[in-house]
Fold this protein.
Amino acid sequence: MKKFYYFSEKSLNFIEIKHFKDKAIAVFTASVLLLSAIVVSVFYIFSNLSERDKDIQTLKQENEFLKNKFSSLSNKYLNLQSELNNISELSNELRLATNLTPISPEVRQLGVGGSNQVENLYSGYGSDIASALDIAEKVSKRFEFEKNQFNEIVDKLKINKDLYESIPAIVPTEGQYSSESFGMRFHPILHINKMHNGIDILNDVGTPVKASGKGKIVSVGNRGGYGLAIEIDHGFGYTTIYGHLSETSVKEGQVVNRGQLIAKSGNSGLSSGPHLHYEVLHHGQNLNPADFFFDEYSYFESNTSN
């Protein structure tokens, strides 16, 4: 085997390198491993940098996509705000139609809030996102506010429906009457000036008498000068009285509808001739029944049977 030497300056002689082959292999192996590690490290670093660039580019694209989405949503919410303005106007018209006070712009503004709390809360995400979220929050509050207003209108309509069914609104029998018969007048039997709390509708004995509105029968029977009489509680403070009857067809506690047959006219009680004495009271105060007669709505032209 060939021998390898090196010159020693200390001894000024050539000294043989023992086990040179093993040492050369070890050095070569270490060099190869070191070089491989360096190559792998460089490759890894460049790969990471490349992947990071791709991730950054992807994030930028996603961010741009989201910004466009938020911008589109903002425009949609702005359009919804415009529609809500129309709904607010309709709401006020409906409130007027149902005897509710319209909502003023100041009250409406208080109802939906006017702060920029949401925009301030999300300001760190960028002005576009913060603005979009703020608009969405305001529109949501507007919808909730308007929904509550419409619920109030619906409740009022239900009450009005019951009121319109109950309020005395028709002439309860056929015959002639004068609206001027309500008030102070000379009594034909007692021959004194006396308050006449209703009107007299002149007709023949046995003419059908019908309830002028939906209500509950609170009394049926003789009532002094009224003779045979019926009183109906219509709710909402309204009551009606039907006097000088010849017969009745309802009983106390019974619920009747407008136009339902309740009696027949007569000449009972303190009466100078066949007629129906009819009164309308509101919270105990007598009102002129003629003020509740609507020419365009006559029961006797309706389809309800006797």
About this structure: Residues 1-166 form one domain.
